[in-house]
Specification:
The structure holds 2 protein chains of 2 kinds. In chain A, about 30% of the residues lie in helices and about 25% in strands. Chain A is an alpha/beta fold. In chain A, helix 4 (about 100-110) runs antiparallel to helix 5 (about 125-140). By secondary structure, chain B is mainly alpha-helical. Chain B is globular. The two termini of chain B are about 15 Å apart. Classes of the chains: A alpha/beta, B mainly alpha. The interface of A and B includes residues 48, 67, 77, 91 and 92 of A.
Chain lengths: ~240, ~325
């Protein structure tokens, strides 16, 4: 199967070591790792921020050379939920969409229960509501690759489930989803899990295998407590930051 | 944007511009009684430079204010608050009284250089995503420093009349400007403004944050550099001819954003129209007051702008960005 995303030697000085990554269509991939390990840096590097080096291709098209059509290639929801400007919700959802599909936008607004908030300034919403707006925006151009940086933080349990269903639905439509998260309880809903620590991709396997690997315990400094939960590893010392 | 509002704004500006150019009609009639060619000369040689400078400078203040606010993600970033205007004044004073620059276009370059130094300092001091208050403090500190340096440069200038000469000009004045001066200010300003307007869509995307904007093909750091350079050129050229005028660049973008559903980049065009309208009205007021000696127009904009600025600060304290 040819890769949807093919990234080669992606790197950010001081944050991310040269990293290769392939994602295939229909795949829903979790990105986990300790704080400061490089989850956000990997997502930013794939998205093509200015300081990132290396190449990323989506369906064989180099992302850096893609013009206004980039919205249809990549949909990024960043970890920051801050939008200071008083732009109405409807406008935010369609920002960066080259040719907004009115029916699709309307469906998204309903799906994320934003249809009553369409004219509200996004700066006046709660963090959870803003998460829904930004998730809808990331999906609005129907991107081939959905990059989500901790989309589940700030969400109540209902919306955690709805967001995961939205990711699954998007992947089922032929796209790929890469989602950074901390909530290990949600890990088994993903097809594949990447563990990133000290700026390096250290493990790439199924979630079930990953949580039992030694590298997982070492990176997170936690261990299974045998009752389906986790405990701090007694041997854990302070971690050196990269 | 709301097309009706845009057209209304244009009509208001046209009316104000016509009033600015033609009033008072009495002196035109008096001139006609002396020589039928005199009213035409009066209009083109004396009044046209003033009217075009007022409109152009007002538009530059609104436009560059909106652009700086978008790039700093901060409704308080404006040519005056950022220190750009004071830096331009310092650059022009140094050029005029110390380097002996007489050519208006070279003087405009001195103003642009001064504004650019200040904006670069602000960038280094506060960073681009600073808290609004941090940016405000850094900008005020830079403005004060530039103001003090300007006073020293004038006090110690080789020409003993420098301080006296410069008073009206420093506070912002459109009195006795020639057509070449107007051209020197407005041509660079127009080029820089055109560049800024082309970045409207990118500046709108910046509202989503640098990373999301970058994922959509915007290069935030380069964009910031372009906006800072273009704003410095536009503001510097205008300040070198007409002095530093406050508050228009702060207030016009705030009003403009309410017409364009809050989009910071799209607000640039209406902000330019509103800035031009506000400054034209302020200069009409200055001329209409008929005092013994002319009042600098910067005094009027400050008088009306300060309460609005305070209102903005109070609103921001409650966490509302406009």
């Amino acid at each position: 199967m040819t890769a949807l995303l093919s990234a080669r030697r992606l790197r950010i000085e001081g944050r991310l070591q040269p990293t290769d990554l392939d994602l295939v269509s229909g795949e829903m991939v979790a990105l986990i790792g300790p704080n400061g390990g490089g989850k956000t840096s990997l997502l930013r590097a794939i998205a093509g921020v200015e300081e990132a080096k290396g190449s990323a291709e989506i369906d064989g098209v180099v992302l850096a050379g893609a013009g206004p059509g980039r919205g249809g290639m990549i949909g990024l929801m960043s970890a920051s939920r801050d939008i200071g400007w008083p732009i109405p919700v409807r406008d935010v959802v369609t920002m960066g969409v080259a040719r907004p599909d009115a029916a699709a936008i309307a469906r998204l607004l309903v799906a994320f229960e934003l249809d009553r908030l369409t004219e509200r300034p996004v700066s006046s919403l709660s963090t959870g509501e803003r998460s829904r707006v930004l998730m809808a925006r990331a999906l609005a151009a129907n991107p081939r690759l959905l990059l989500l940086d901790e989309p589940l933080s700030n969400l109540d349990p209902y919306w955690v489930l709805r967001f995961i269903a939205a990711m699954r639905g998007h992947a089922a439509g032929g796209a790929a989803v890469l989602c950074a998260l901390h909530d290990l309880a949600q890990l088994n809903r993903f097809d594949r899990a990447l563990l990133i620590a000290d700026g390096r991709l250290v493990v790439d396997m199924t979630p079930a295998l990953l949580v039992r690997s030694a590298l997982f315990e070492e990176s997170f400094r936690i261990a299974a407590d045998g009752r389906g939960g986790w405990r701090v590893k007694p041997s854990a010392g302070p971690r050196s930051s990269p | 944007m709301n097309r009706a509002a845009l057209i209304l704004l244009l009509l208001l500006l046209l009316a104000a511009a016509a009033a600015h150019l033609l009033l008072p009609l009495g002196s035109l009639a008096d001139a006609r009684a002396i020589d039928p060619r005199l009213p035409g000369l009066l209009l083109t040689e004396l009044r046209l430079p003033r009217t075009s400078l007022v409109i152009g400078y007002g538009a530059v203040l609104g436009l560059s204010g909106a652009a700086l606010q978008a790039v700093f993600a901060n409704p308080l970033a404006s040519p005056d608050i950022s220190g750009a205007s004071s830096g331009a004044a310092l650059g022009a004073v140094l050029g005029l009284y110390w380097l002996g620059v007489a050519d208006p276009l070279l003087l405009a370059a001195c103003g642009a250089a001064g504004a650019l130094v200040m904006l670069a300092c602000l960038f280094l001091l506060a960073g681009r995503r600073a808290e609004p208050s941090t940016l405000l403090l850094a900008g005020i500190a830079l403005s004060l420093a530039a103001g003090a340096a300007t006073s020293i440069a004038l006090a110690l200038a080789p020409s003993p009349f420098a301080f006296y000469d410069a008073f009206d000009w420093l506070m912002g004045s459109f009195v006795d400007k020639s057509l070449p001066q107007a051209v020197a200010a407005l041509v660079p300003a127009a080029v820089a403004s055109a560049l800024l307007l082309r970045r409207a869509a990118a500046l709108d995307l910046l509202a989503l944050g640098d990373d999301v904007a970058a994922s959509l093909g915007v290069r935030p750091r380069r964009l910031a550099g372009e906006v800072i350079a273009a704003s410095a050129v536009a503001v510097g050229a205008c300040v070198s001819v007409c002095g530093a005028i406050g508050f228009v660049g702060l207030v016009a973008p705030v009003l403009a954003r309410s017409l364009v559903r809050g989009h910071p980049g799209r607000a640039m065009l209406p902000a330019a129209l509103i800035g031009a309208l506000l400054l034209t009205l302020a200069d009409l007021a200055v001329r209409g007051l008929m005092l013994d000696r002319p009042l600098p127009v910067g005094v009027v904009t400050a008088l009306f702008g300060t309460p609005l600025f305070l209102w903005l600060v109070v609103r921001m304290r409650r966490g509302v960005m406009t």
